[in-house]
Design a protein that fits this description.
The structure is a single chain. With 141 residues, the chain is α/β, with parallel strands linked by helices. It has a single domain, classed as Rossmann fold (3-Layer(aba) Sandwich). Helix content is 35%, strand content 25%. It is built from four helices and five strands. A five-stranded parallel β-sheet has the order 2-1-3-4-5, sandwiched between helices. Helix 1 packs across helix 4 and helix 2 packs parallel to helix 3. The radius of gyration is 14 Å and the shape is globular. The mean pLDDT is 87.
């Protein structure tokens, strides 16, 4: 039996909304990193976060840095970005340094101030949900 987790860091509420939608489909209750969830043995850790001012939230980086490398087998990154061009490079680097495999990353349309208002919308969220579900379907083969 695989054990999967979803954590998220959200400044604007976009990542929380995406994590909740993914959690509903995967039957996983997402954890906000501000509650400092304990990461136990996990097969797939879904990390939902946004890009703010060109980078990941500092509190997400601190949380990921504290994850014990032997607890997480694989990570999946789900990233909201207004430009839809920049991924969670710092998160990826921290995890890879710990020997945690990054399975894949999806960049979802986000918004910032007046740029891309209304995103992530229902289509963006559905894309993220399908991405996460397909990751797990591929793992079950």
């Amino acid at each position: 039996m695989t054990k999967n987790r979803i954590i998220y860091a959200s400044k604007t509420g976009h990542s929380k909304k995406m994590a909740a939608a993914i959690g509903k489909v995967l039957d996983i209750i997402p954890d906000n990193i501000t509650s400092n969830p304990v990461i136990e043995e996990t097969d797939f850790l879904f990390i939902v976060g946004g890009i703010y001012g060109g980078g990941s939230l500092p509190e997400l980086l601190t949380f990921v840095q504290a994850i014990e490398d032997k607890k997480v087998r694989k990570a999946v990154l789900i990233t909201s970005c207004a430009a839809k061009k920049q991924g969670q490079d710092s998160v990826r680097s921290i995890l890879e340094d710990k020997g945690i495999t990054i399975v894949d990353e999806i960049l979802c349309q986000g918004s910032f101030l007046f740029m891309k208002i209304g995103h992530p919308n229902k289509t963006d969220i559905t894309e993220a949900v399908n991405f996460a579900a397909n990751i797990l379907k591929g793992a079950v083969k």
